[in-house]
What does this fold into?
Amino acid sequence: MTTVDLELGLKPKDFKSDQEVRWCPGCGDYVVLNAMQSFLPSLGLKRENIVFISGIGCSSRFPYYMNTYGMHSIHGRAPAIATGLAVTRPDLSVWVVTGDGDALSIGGNHLIHALRRNVNLKILLFNNRIYGLTKGQYSPTSETGKLTKSTPMGSLDHPFNPLSLAIGAEATFVARTLDNDRAQLTSILTAAAQHRGSALVEIYQNCPIFNDGAFDVLKEPGEKEQRLIPVEHGQPIRFGPDREHAVLRNDRGGLEIGPYDENRVVVHDATTDDPAYAFALSRLSTQDLAHTVTGVYRNVDRPTYDDQARAQVSAATDAKPADLRSLLRGRDTWTVG
Amino acid sequence: MQLTGDRFTSEAAAFGNDLATLPNFPAEIRAPAGTLPGVSSFQLHFADDDILTPGDRPDVLVAMNPAALKANIGDVPQGGTLLVNTDEFVKRNLGKVGYDANPLEDGSLDAYQLLPVAMATLTQGALADTGLSKKDAERCKNMFALGLLSWMYGRPTEGTERFLREKFARKPDIAEANVLAFRAGWNYGETTEAFATTYEVAPAKFPPGEYRQITGNAALSYGIVAAGQCAQLPVFLGSYPITPASDILHELSKHKNFNVITMQAEDEIAGVGAALGAAYGGALGVTTTSGPGIALKAETIGLAVMQELPLLVIDVQRGGPSTGLPTKTEQADLLQALHGRNGESPVPVLAPLSPGDCFDVVIDAVRIALRYRTPVLVLSDGALANGSEPWLIPDVDELPDLRVTFATEPNATDGSGEHWPYVRDESLAREWAIPGTPGLQHRIGGLEKADGKGSISYDPDNHDRMVRLRQAKIDGVEVPGLEVEDPGGHADVLVLGWGSTYGPIGAACRAIRKRGQSIAQAHLRHLNPFPANLGEVLARYGTVIVPEMNLGQLSLLLRARYLVDVVSYTKVAGTPFMESELVDVFSEHLGTTLAEAA
It folds into this structure.
């Protein structure tokens, strides 16, 4: 288990590496990096016990800027690599930094399997709904009809809703936040860090070069109140300038948005075991961002793959000594000479 | 049938014969019974002296149905013995494989010693009192055949009976039925006059020591376990099921008590990725696969080259390209292993030469991986994987010390007190600084790094230097010199092979020497880097023949590297070379030499 020491006295600057940050000016990644560096001291972890593993893409440069251990790996494969590390090193806090292309396109397979195994990984999915590093092609989260260099007549693919995907993949911790909401980002990162198992945190993040303003409607006063639906565990889900809207149970067993109604309003319970609830929450978010639910959707306990893998080794070790001589001899031998 | 073959092999081993086996089975799990594509066969060669191959042509063929007879009769020399289960030779089965008449009756097998036995009927009779259904009883007929063979060759039977009782421990009635069938077969031989002949194959003369029988896949697995113990590191295997490598995953999964974690990954890429992640954390990372899996793992192996982390990659080669021949053997992944990645991406490559040698080769591969901090590829193949031989059980105390030293202190050469990931030691290996070590926080990745410090670097001179450094590190890997077997030292022809062709090449060379001619044999276990004396060895011989189960991949490398015009002899039939075939090929070149000398 990771040792926690709140007396370390680490400051945010202690988590800055000596590498010059090379994201474009105005990139949402800066906000996340700063929030991460500010928040990590509160975890009480030693720097050497924290590892960031990333794939390929703009966001995947993240590990270079953190004064922790880090690996910038290959496109889409970070969850797989991080799984091997997490399974063999229970003393480490392992974080995966990925993007919408990295996690959902080339690396979709590894993402869903890491989530279903419930490996102790904290996966930060920076979603800017575009390919930045390859200079502006549409991504698996781009809205249908997106005009890009590779889709001059508009993209045809229906996008993924990353949280629906994660919940469908049996994820035990699923959350969404925005790059401009530092307070929510920090509280979600804290909850993710405390979760035993896989945690998927989707962060809507602006690409000022290739998809500028993609999330502006969720940030502009007057607009955002109508669209953002923040959820807090134990609280009724209400939103709107005067909290006049709410998430309500409908008569088909699902959720819908409507005028606040004391009798029908949903009180958010992230620990609901049935994933149908979190899935229904995720479906309130539409690709045109008419509504977007933020906060921790789901936070449930399930045994983790890595804890159990190590438990099997312990059980086997307790049951049978590691006698190499006996293994090599096997059962049927004969002697010559 | 594979199980029956395995048991007969175990009996031969227990008796002290030398042996070599060639299992041969279809890729389909339940291929239609009684059809030619559905035939599953097991060839065993056992002897009272030292043998090297499963044999070219079997002296005895046990055919359980017409398909088995038809598929294999061509391999049996005239005068050979055919032990045939007559119960299956009915019109419908004969028709399925295109026999117009029953070959047991039409005289077409007159050139052979035909031993017709109604094995199913006899088995059912022997099991009549067990209460087993006729169908279940009939299923025991392979054990009847095994019992009969065991009697013919005077094999010990205790091992098989014990094996059956353990295998069917949860179904004691099935276990007893199989034992009964086995004994019935033995008794049938003993009491039937048709079997006037028995054969004695005395124990072989081996060097003294304790032996067991082993397959290549088992030896690879034990090698991995042993290497972890010798290195005092946890072993992490990330693997995806693929024929013919899956048995390594199965075997290692049984040995978690040796601090072995096995993970059946979601795909080949995740298997190697997780192994690399484990290696980054200080474990012995291993991934096992066959050729198509290597293609998928290529990018991650390249990352391991770039990050200079130890990683063991095992490729049990099978027929290719693409899905190819999953259950057949081939050695056509050599160039893929050496060059199948983007960029200049050198990795050491080793190949075992026999099933037992898989153990030693894995240990050597791990030595290289750990010492030089590099991925290492081991090329086994289908013939080694499932083939078996007697194995002198290694002395655990004689295994090498593979312990490693993790970095503990910052190593920056500028006195900054930082850790620089790409500072190298005298063998050009960088330090293995694992997460959790205070003060050594650093970042590695697939982007080119500055020599020494390890920051991202796009500097042209730095890239040129790093490419050459990575190459020089692998070129400098210490490997043992190539040994040449040239009794008398008069040979002008050298046969140079690699991998599982060692057996047939060796057998052919012996046969040639037996008739009074000289021929030299050498076998490469290290394909990258080559042994330092390889060039000198090649230059010593007028003719160098390179037999390979591909279209000449090693030949290509030798010609390019040493400017030697080797004679390439190739076959890609999914089956090993035959001794007789190689004798003919080698003789052509010996003939020329003799003629010129005269």
In short: Chain A has one domain: 12-233+268-309.
